[in-house]
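Quick start: what a row looks like.
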Amino acid sequence: MELLPEFDVEDYKEIIDNSPLLYIIIFSIIFAVTGILLNLSMINTFEVITIILFLFMIFGSITIFTLSGVVTDWKERKDVITYILMTMVGLTLILVSAVVVGLIRFQTFTFVLWKPYVTEFPVDPQLYTPLAPVYINFMSFSQALRIDPNVLYDVGKYFLLVAPGEELVFRGIMPFLLAKLVKTPWVGGMISNAFWASLHTIMTYTGPELLTWTFIAYVGGFWLLYVMVQSMDITTPILVHAVYNTIVRLMGAR
C-alpha cells in the first residue's frame, strides 16, 4: 500500500460502484422499520427522528451520487477476504491511534477516539398498546440471546444506520462535492472530516476540551478516509466504523 495514495474525483465512481452497498441498504431499511416500530411502542419520538435522519443521510447520499452519474451499477464486488483484511487494517490503525493518544494525552490505556451514539431504553416504559407486542418480542429475543437489549439494538444501529449514514455523507458525498470544488480530493476529505469530528464533540464538550477531543476524533476520521481510498470502496470504512463503535459500546457496557 502506498503511504498516501493518490486519487481524484473520478475515483469516487470506483469507490461507490465496487461495493455490496446495496445489501447494506436493504438491511438498513428492514432495521429502520423495526427500530421505528420498536421506539413508537415506547413512545420514544426522539429515537424515531434519529432513525429517520440516518435514513435520510443514506438515501440522500445515494440519490446525489446517482444523479451525479457516480453510481452506475451494483454488480462489481471484491472478495469477502478483501473486505475482512481491509477492515482489520483500518480497525487496527484506529485502535492503535487511540492507545497512543490515550497514553500521551491522558496517561491511560483507552480505545476511545470518539464516543458512539448510545441508546438507553426506559426501564419502565409507557407502552403504546397497539405496538406493545413489538417491544415484548424484542425484549424476549434479547433475553433469549442473553444480551442487553440496549447493546443488541445499538449494534444493529451501528452497522445498518449510523456507520452507513455517516460514511456516505462524510467520507462520500461531502468529500466528493468538495473535491469537485477545490479540485483536490484529499483536501475535500480533510475538510469533511473536520465537520464529522466536530459533530462528535460539539454536543459533549466545551472550551479547550472541545478542541482536544475534536482533534482526537479527527485522527479516527482520517483513518476511515485512508482505508476508503486504499480499498477504493466505501463499504470498508462503513465496516470499520461499525466494528469500532461496537467495541467502544461493549467496553462501556461492562
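That is the whole record. The mean pLDDT is 92. DSSP finds nine helices and no strands in the chain.
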